[in-house]
Amino acid sequence: MNFDFVFTIENNGGNKYIYLHSWLTNEYPNYFNCPGVSNNAKAPVLSDLLLSRINLGIHNDIHAGHPSPTLMTTYIPDPNVTLTPAAGLIRQVYPSGDSARFTIKGIELYVPFACNSVVGMTADVWSSQSQSATQIHCVSCNNKFVIDPKVTGLINCTDPRTCNLIIRSAAPTSINGNYQIYIDNPSDPNQSGTTGTFGPEDSLATFGNYATQIKNGFNEFVATNMPYEPFSYTKPAADRNLWVLVETEGYTNKAMGYLLNSCAPLQIMINDFNGKYHNGKVQLNWTLESDEQVFSVEVQRKYEGESFKVIASPENLVQENNGSGQFNKNFYRYEDLTYRTGAHIYYRLKVTGSNNVYYSDVITVKTGMVNGIMIYPNPSDGHFQVSLPENPMGVDLIITDISGRRLKSWMAVQQRRIDVSDLMPGVYFIQIRVNGGGELITERIIIR
To answer: What is the per-residue pLDDT across 133-161, written as a single tens digit (0 to 9) for each?
Structure first.
């Protein structure tokens, strides 16, 4: 079998050499006598690793002559130990700087009957600062994981994009859990080629639960034509690959899949689409970048429980060449004066080009205040303005993720500009509790 192994460790000046050993769980020798391992333990040698199935080494001493970690070809404590083949190594430091994620790609492992049963493994990871790598300074042992399920799928080149997902297990009975699908964004925003590594820069596109079924000899979950709007019809997300992260009940680790995007790139980018309610009218603004001819631009509007309807094809277009000779950037503005007062209004754009039809993100604008509360702009880059009704006792604001885990909070505020730009792009919820009245209001917010 061939798989990738991902783990996260503290990012500091230590961990000069990192080694990983893994056994089938029923063959695990507990060399370090976990728990209670001594930090001064001696490194295992060949006689201790006779049953190990995976042995990997990472040279993690970063300096001018060795700017990034590399996979080792020799096990320094005992050169008689053969290291397991792997295709490559990627190290990614989190924005906080205190942790680093390592991805060992393409680990090759032979296990009898692995195609017909769940392979359970137990791993020890240790590091050393000594040049001979014989003295152990940090150990994490008895780490259990399974090489199951297998996650595959594809991206459908429809408009908007959809994806198919297959979660296949070698277990003899049904398994269940949840999945999350992420846009594979560049780890360096200034270099489009820095994709292919799952990390905090990747945007949550959609999520759901799964349960496999045994049918025609396969124990699998299959979902087809799954939408992941608004990413699926806006550039650059619609042109990018997808990560799938699967968490299974009863398994201690998560499985990952990578869906390649083989679709022809979308040719029109709709950027900076935003709207706000001001002085009795809804103001909409956006820009277009196009390398194909734009035939029409429509503003579409809908209310709760209704479908989108065309309300305008703006003519107040300002066109400016950015000097590159490739793109024209078009600035659009539109004012909606025919809305319903006191309602949540949803807007989107439909752009017809010479090769395709494109849709923007859907944005929400509140005309006036619903329950006296307004949150705008939404979606945003992580900066939201919350306008609140007059209340001498103020309100409490709580930001949670989709699982309900509290991330941030502000107490007894009257009006506040909220900065949550340090959170990863995705869907969150803001809970607003009016003090003195006990009323709790929950609104969805989106960080792009």
So the answer is: 878 888 888 888 888 898 999 999 987 88
CA dist 9 to 60, 98, 202, 445, Å?
12, 9, 20, 31
Alpha-carbon span 367 to 282, nearest angstrom = 8
Give the predicted TM-score (pTM) of the model.
0.55
Structure tokens, 420:
């949550």
Q: What gap in Å lies between CA 24 and CA 112, rounded to an integer?
A: 11
| Domain ranges across the chain | 2-146, 150-259, 267-368, 372-448
Q: Tokens for 326, please give them.
A: 């490739």
Q: Which of 318, 317, 313 is nearest to 297 (CA)?
A: 313
The CATH homologous superfamily to which domain 267-368 belongs is Immunoglobulins (2.60.40.10)
267-368 and 372-448 agree in CATH topology: yes
Residue 25 DSSP code = G
Report residue 300 as tokens.
């579409």
Q: Does domain 150-259 have CATH number 3.10.450?
A: no
**Which alpha helices (H) appear in 113-260, and where do they start and end?**
none
What is the CATH T-level fold of the domain 372-448, as seen in this structure? Immunoglobulin-like (2.60.40)
